[in-house]
């Protein structure tokens, strides 16, 4: 069963095409990763999926309900964990979850039960009567999640839920996502932490300039660039390395710099390692270390978009 | 609709959870009305200091001074003529009363033309003493007429008048103008606080957008219209509580006669409350931050309250300003209350109520249109 079905989705802000004719289908039970640099169109897509902004063209349905025509039915099935923590500092943890859950029609003892269930799920039951102003960043993030799940949505959209928190809280959240998924929730997950996406997502879309430029499982995405060899060269003086010169070498697709490390991605079929080393030696750049790697999602992303995820 | 109530209750909970909320929305408006009413009633009951120059120094002139002294509203000081200007300008007396030379002679011969009163505070101050003297002189002149120039007869009638042998039925009339003034000015101040309070409550929308809770609410099965309705409900409840409390303070605590029934005052103020809520939403619909809402509010609320007679009677204003005030809902509200105080029935001021509600409707419609136009949630996630 398709939990999310997007067809021909287009959204414009004036002359800017934020989402360009996107087609996307998410099956029930998936943890679906949305990857894209800032301004790629992820947020706009999520806003449209949640019925927060209208689209210019196309259709979006959640569990078969059109977000435009059956807005309330569609929204009832969604729980959203926004990137910015959306809670009331002047209400206790319990009151926060209770208020947001009551907007989904929960009342009385069922509401109370679900609120405590959600707080327990994120490990905040003991802090139910505390105010978020006394919470750590991680606890606030967990409360942010509790507010999104108390009404037991079938689809949970999480946007960067682990930004700016300690590793322990991050781990707790990732475990929670997996647990929610095992309980039958479909999750749409966006993150800047590639390793998180690699760890929990069953399928991933890479979005750039409002378009989905690649989609599939981790393995499928990596296979897109299995024709790529990556050589990592550690040098003494990185400022003297010219990206354009390296790109002139036959087979080099992209070059990336990270402190004193130069990453050179080349077409697998072309053996150009000797020429790359020659470039460094001819230009008097001393090599401290050299190694070859298999591609990860970061490489896939860089190869496809020409940008780092955090650009 | 249920969600609108849930949202309204949540806004009330968030607002009154903080002590500052109770202070801003309840205590400050009530306290200010209390202070303004106390201030005006104090001004109204303050005695008048009168410096008297007796240039005649006769039995009748002394009788006049004694008569003025007997009135509790006046405190008499006998002064010299050359002290008059100095004492009036230095505020040691509110006005001076100069009994001219030959006063007694003129009274007895029915020739008295005028008694001079000097003040720099205008008719507001001199009116009391002027009225009192007019009454006294009229009585004295009537006695003079009756005695037909015969001093003996005059003395006889006058001593009878003085000793109350003449059957005079004294009925003290309540000074309605003072009481109504106190109510009008207190309501004027309150009207300003209703506007400030409603704008502050409406600005919670901006705060909710800033802390993202607005978007979380709108991602639930709640439309932005229902959210706005929730804000209006909460705002209305706050305004209603303010109105009830202020009317109770005015009528029960300060025991001021409002000169109109409780329910009529309620109806007018509730109508104005709707205008204020609409006005608050209007400001919010044009603003991106709470400081912008507050700045716009300050820029509009105080000057418009001044123009529409919230702080002083509108009759003090120049003609052109009074005409401009017709475009302000506060003017129609205060005028409606004034008419009800004058004994008009609620049906007689239906035109005023229609105008006030039209302001509310216009504000709501522009705000709704603008909210829709500026619907921008791209920063939510």
From TrEMBL, chain A:
<dbReference type="GO" id="GO:0005524">
    <property type="term" value="F:ATP binding"/>
</dbReference>
<dbReference type="Pfam" id="PF00005">
    <property type="entry name" value="ABC_tran"/>
</dbReference>
<dbReference type="InterPro" id="IPR027417">
    <property type="entry name" value="P-loop_NTPase"/>
</dbReference>
<keyword id="KW-0547">Nucleotide-binding</keyword>
<feature type="domain" description="ABC transporter">
    <location>
        <begin position="4"/>
        <end position="234"/>
    </location>
</feature>
<dbReference type="InterPro" id="IPR003439">
    <property type="entry name" value="ABC_transporter-like_ATP-bd"/>
</dbReference>
<dbReference type="InterPro" id="IPR003593">
    <property type="entry name" value="AAA+_ATPase"/>
</dbReference>
<dbReference type="InterPro" id="IPR017871">
    <property type="entry name" value="ABC_transporter-like_CS"/>
</dbReference>
<protein>
    <submittedName>
        <fullName>Antibiotic ABC transporter ATP-binding protein</fullName>
    </submittedName>
</protein>
<keyword id="KW-0067">ATP-binding</keyword>
<dbReference type="GO" id="GO:0016887">
    <property type="term" value="F:ATP hydrolysis activity"/>
</dbReference>
Automatic annotation (TrEMBL), chain B:
<keyword id="KW-1133">Transmembrane helix</keyword>
<keyword id="KW-0547">Nucleotide-binding</keyword>
<dbReference type="GO" id="GO:0140359">
    <property type="term" value="F:ABC-type transporter activity"/>
</dbReference>
<feature type="domain" description="ABC transmembrane type-2">
    <location>
        <begin position="150"/>
        <end position="374"/>
    </location>
</feature>
<keyword id="KW-0813">Transport</keyword>
<dbReference type="GO" id="GO:0043190">
    <property type="term" value="C:ATP-binding cassette (ABC) transporter complex"/>
</dbReference>
<feature type="transmembrane region" description="Helical">
    <location>
        <begin position="296"/>
        <end position="314"/>
    </location>
</feature>
<comment type="similarity">
    <text>Belongs to the ABC-2 integral membrane protein family.</text>
</comment>
<keyword id="KW-0812">Transmembrane</keyword>
<dbReference type="InterPro" id="IPR051449">
    <property type="entry name" value="ABC-2_transporter_component"/>
</dbReference>
<keyword id="KW-0067">ATP-binding</keyword>
<dbReference type="InterPro" id="IPR013525">
    <property type="entry name" value="ABC2_TM"/>
</dbReference>
<keyword id="KW-0472">Membrane</keyword>
<dbReference type="Pfam" id="PF12698">
    <property type="entry name" value="ABC2_membrane_3"/>
</dbReference>
<keyword id="KW-1003">Cell membrane</keyword>
<protein>
    <recommendedName>
        <fullName>Transport permease protein</fullName>
    </recommendedName>
</protein>
<feature type="transmembrane region" description="Helical">
    <location>
        <begin position="226"/>
        <end position="250"/>
    </location>
</feature>
<feature type="transmembrane region" description="Helical">
    <location>
        <begin position="21"/>
        <end position="40"/>
    </location>
</feature>
<feature type="transmembrane region" description="Helical">
    <location>
        <begin position="187"/>
        <end position="206"/>
    </location>
</feature>
<dbReference type="InterPro" id="IPR000412">
    <property type="entry name" value="ABC_2_transport"/>
</dbReference>
<feature type="transmembrane region" description="Helical">
    <location>
        <begin position="349"/>
        <end position="371"/>
    </location>
</feature>
<dbReference type="InterPro" id="IPR047817">
    <property type="entry name" value="ABC2_TM_bact-type"/>
</dbReference>
């Amino acid at each position: 069963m398709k939990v999310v079905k997007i067809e021909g989705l287009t959204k414009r802000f004036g002359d800017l095409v934020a989402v360009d004719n996107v087609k996307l289908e998410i099956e029930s039970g998936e943890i679906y990763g949305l990857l894209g640099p800032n301004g790629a169109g992820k947020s706009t897509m999520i806003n449209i999926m949640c019925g927060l902004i209208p689209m210019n063209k196309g259709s979006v349905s959640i569990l078969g309900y059109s977000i435009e025509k059956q807005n309330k039915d569609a929204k009832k099935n969604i729980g959203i964990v926004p990137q910015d923590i959306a809670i009331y500092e002047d209400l206790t943890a319990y009151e926060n979850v209770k208020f947001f859950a009551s907007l989904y029609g929960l009342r009385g003892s069922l509401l109370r039960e679900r609120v405590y269930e959600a707080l327990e799920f994120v490990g905040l039951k003991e802090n139910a009567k505390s105010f978020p102003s006394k919470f750590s960043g991680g606890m606030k993030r967990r409360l942010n999640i509790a507010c999104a799940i108390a009404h037991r949505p079938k689809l949970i959209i999480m946007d960067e839920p682990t930004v700016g928190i300690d590793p322990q809280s991050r781990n707790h959240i990732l475990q929670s996502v997996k647990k929610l998924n095992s309980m039958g929730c479909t999750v749409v997950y966006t993150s800047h932490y590639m390793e998180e996406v690699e760890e929990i997502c069953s399928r991933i879309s890479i979005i750039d300039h409002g378009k989905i430029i690649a989609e599939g499982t981790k393995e499928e995405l990596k296979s897109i660039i299995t024709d790529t060899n990556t050589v990592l060269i550690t040098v003494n003086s990185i400022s003297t390395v010219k990206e354009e010169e390296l790109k002139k070498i036959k087979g080099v697709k992209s070059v990336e710099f990270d402190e004193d490390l130069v990453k050179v991605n080349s077409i697998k079929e072309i053996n150009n390692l000797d020429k790359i080393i020659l470039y460094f030696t001819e230009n008097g750049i001393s090599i401290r270390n050299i190694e070859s790697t298999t591609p990860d999602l970061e490489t896939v992303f860089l190869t496809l978009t020409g940008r780092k995820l955090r650009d | 609709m249920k969600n609108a109530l849930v949202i309204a209750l949540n806004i009330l909970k968030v607002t009154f959870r903080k002590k500052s909320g109770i202070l801003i929305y309840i205590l400050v408006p009530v306290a200010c009305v209390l202070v303004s009413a106390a201030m005006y009633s104090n001004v109204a009951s303050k005695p008048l200091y009168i410096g008297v120059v007796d240039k005649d120094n006769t039995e009748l002139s002394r009788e006049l001074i004694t008569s003025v002294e007997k009135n509790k509203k006046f405190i008499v000081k006998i002064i010299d003529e050359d002290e008059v200007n100095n004492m009036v300008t230095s505020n040691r007396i509110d006005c001076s009363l100069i009994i001219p030379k030959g006063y007694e002679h003129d009274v007895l011969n029915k020739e008295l033309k005028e008694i001079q009163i000097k003040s720099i505070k205008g008719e507001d101050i001199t009116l009391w003493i002027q009225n009192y003297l007019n009454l006294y002189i009229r009585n004295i002149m009537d006695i003079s007429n009756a005695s037909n120039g015969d001093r003996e007869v005059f003395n006889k009638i006058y001593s009878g008048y003085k000793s109350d042998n003449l059957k005079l039925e004294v009925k003290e009339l309540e000074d309605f103008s003072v009481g109504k003034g106190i109510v009008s000015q207190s309501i004027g101040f309150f009207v300003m606080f209703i506007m400030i309070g409603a704008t502050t409550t409406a600005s919670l929308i901006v705060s909710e957008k800033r802390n993202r809770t607005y978007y979380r609410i709108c991602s639930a099965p709640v439309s932005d219209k229902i959210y706005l309705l929730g804000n209006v409900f909460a705002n209305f409840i706050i305004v209603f509580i303010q109105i009830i409390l202020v009317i109770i303070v005015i009528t029960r605590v300060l025991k001021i006669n409002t000169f109109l029934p409780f329910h009529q005052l309620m109806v007018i103020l509730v109508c104005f409350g709707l205008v204020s809520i609409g006005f608050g939403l209007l400001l919010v619909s044009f603003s991106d931050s709470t400081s912008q809402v507050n700045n716009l509010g300050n820029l509009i609320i105080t000057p418009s309250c001044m123009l529409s007679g919230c702080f002083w009677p509108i009759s003090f204003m120049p003609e052109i300003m009074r005409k401009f005030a017709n475009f302000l809902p506060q003017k129609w509200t205060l005028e409606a209350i004034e008419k009800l105080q004058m004994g008009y029935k609620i049906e007689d001021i239906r035109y005023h109520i229609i105008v006030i509600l039209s302001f509310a409707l216009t504000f709501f419609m522009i705000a709704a249109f603008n909210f829709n136009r500026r619907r921008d949630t791209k920063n939510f996630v």
